[in-house]
Amino acid sequence: MQEVVRVEVLKLLQASIIYPISDSPWVSPTQVVPKKSGITMVKNDKGEEVSTCLTSSWRVCIDYRKLNTVTRNDHFPLPFIDQVLERVSGHPFYYFLDGNSRYFQLEIVIEDQEKTTFTCPFGTYAYRRMPFGLCNAPTTFQRCMLSIFSDMVEHIMEVFMDDIIIYGSEFDECLVNLEVVLNRCIEKNLVLNWEKCHFMVSQGIVLGHIISKQGIEVDKAKVELIVKLPLPTTVKGVRQFLGHAGFYKRFIKDFSKLARPLCELLVKDVKFVWDDRCQWSFEELKLLLTTTPIVRAPN
Q1: Does pLDDT of 134 surpass 60?
Q2: Does the fold of domain 218-289 match that of domain 2-212?
Q3: In the prediction, which pLDDT does 40 show?
Q4: Do 232 and 241 touch, CB atoms closer than 8 A?
Q5: What is the pLDDT of residue 294?
Q6: Which of 78, 82, 113, 287 yields a CA-CA distance of 20 to 30 A from 88?
């Protein structure tokens, strides 16, 4: 794992995102964690299908827990997913833009840089730009993005973190909207990842949902993985299933009522007993996920 850390440190040094620092009262340790790219089904030693997380690579993280405990929380609200989906759905033309390197686009004021100090086998370093792991990083980034596009949000585009969705009711209108947004990106030095941008399409995936002129749909690929999840035999398994299924609860009428037998298994000190009610709930939720309707945003 040291090689993973070494490569990451060299990359950040060459990009001038971090710099060596000799002393700081704020020093956090590094961790190497698997970078998960989703879930899939595999067979265990007994030949049973079980879910597992795919690990495509490794990510170097800084453990900022001690720093976060003494940090005053920023209560700037993140957008509600349902509201974002309703505003962007129902249009015939879209552009999907993706910000490059997310938090690293934001500079940290010099007097606060030493607070980001981390140590690793190759030295002690501090960040010039905002790293992952800080408790206020998501809200700070969202506030910045909204300040950049405040006069455009809810009119010609939406922004959720580094995902930018531009829409229009006509081809030419959408093209004009794109030009306005790109000019603003140039003006504010906001860098985009062109490999992840999609131009003039009729539908796309936004926050785990498919949006189009017809409305909002579930992502079929995600539903297929949920349907393949095996019968839960532990509380952890039940919680995992409910977490995945609950992501699309807006598409299932009376979801809370249907999921109640499974939710009862999550109560503290309750004995885990998988009965007929649980089996029915498990199978019914899977069935309903495969027959979800297209949801239209209210006029």
Answers
A1: yes
A2: yes
A3: 53
A4: yes
A5: 86
A6: 287
SS3 labels along the chain:
CHHHHHHHHHHHHHCCCEEECCCCCCCEEEEEEEEEEEEEEEECCCCCEEEEEEEEEEEEEECCHHHHHCCCCCCCCCCCHHHHHHHHCCCCEEEEEEECCHHHHCECCHHHHHHHCEEECCEEEEECECCCCCCCHHHHHHHHHHHHCCCCECCCEEEECCEEEEEECCHHHHHHHHHHHHHHHHHCCCCECHHHCEEEECEEEECCEEEECCCEEECHHHHHHHHCCCCCCCHHHHHHHHHHHHCCHHHCCCHHHHHHHHHHCCCCCCCCCCCHHHHHHHHHHHHHHCCCCCECCCC
> 2-212 belongs to which homologous superfamily?
Reverse transcriptase/Diguanylate cyclase domain (3.30.70.270)
pTM of this prediction? 0.84
- Residues 230-279 have pLDDT tens digits of 999 999 999 999 999 999 999 999 999 999 999 999 999 899 999 999 99
Domain 218-289 belongs to what topology? Alpha-Beta Plaits (3.30.70)
Which two three-digit tokens encode residue 264? 């009862």
Domain ranges of the chain: 2-212, 218-289
Please write the tens of the pLDDT for every residue from 47-96.
655 555 554 688 899 999 999 999 999 999 999 999 999 999 999 999 99
Residue whose token pair is 């505003």: 87
Distance of CA 4 to the CA centre of its chain: 23
For range 148-160, the mean pLDDT = 96
